[in-house]
Amino acid sequence: MDKSNLDNILDDCMSMNSSMEYKEIVPVNKSIIGSNVWFVSHCPECDEKNTIFDKRSTPNNLKYECEYCGCKYRGKVRTYRTVVAKNQSQRKYLNPKQKQQLCREQENCCFWCHREFTTYIFDSKSYRVRQLNPVFDHIKAFSFSFDNNISNFVASCPVCNGFKSSGVYQSENDCRQILEYKWNKALDKGRYEILCR
Predict the structure, then answer these.
(1) CA-to-CA distance for 175 and 186, rounded, in angstroms?
(2) Residue 111: is its pLDDT beyond 80?
(3) What is the DSSP letter of 116?
(4) Residue 5, in any domain of the structure
(5) Pick from 76, 6, 78: which is nearest to 47 by CA?
(6) Considering the domain boundaries, does residue 177 fall inside one?
(7) In-domain check, residue 2
């Protein structure tokens, strides 16, 4: 989905009453992959796939809200869960030389949002100024892929890393579009303010 289509969908949904909730119950697929529990559904408004990752959640306490258009809806688990045995691979971390190499290859910028790691932001939630120091993130979430190869690592800013969490996306471009949307939403709502770069 290109950015203009995503913007059109968001504009259409924002024009609706934000308190409106769809009456129809959307089918949900529950999957257990590794140590994660996923609840996957499709938004009744824009038909985008939405995934809730939470090993503590049960189908009865989930709040379904489309991360693309903001539509709220009700869901019901209708399919059998898929259980995948947990891989015994242990999470590994990059050594300092590998971290330096990644930062150099990415020109000292976040792989996802392309902001420089020298950028400072004001975080209104913690009420403090933070520098976007690099964190080293798996492109494909380790909890899903169990892939510790250096080719599955990128240098990410802490904000993108938090937005991305353990999410699994169809492509790097899809992930980047969603993170850009989340950044813009956080900036518009005053959660973050970019101070300098």
Answers:
(1) 16
(2) yes
(3) B
(4) no
(5) 6
(6) yes
(7) no
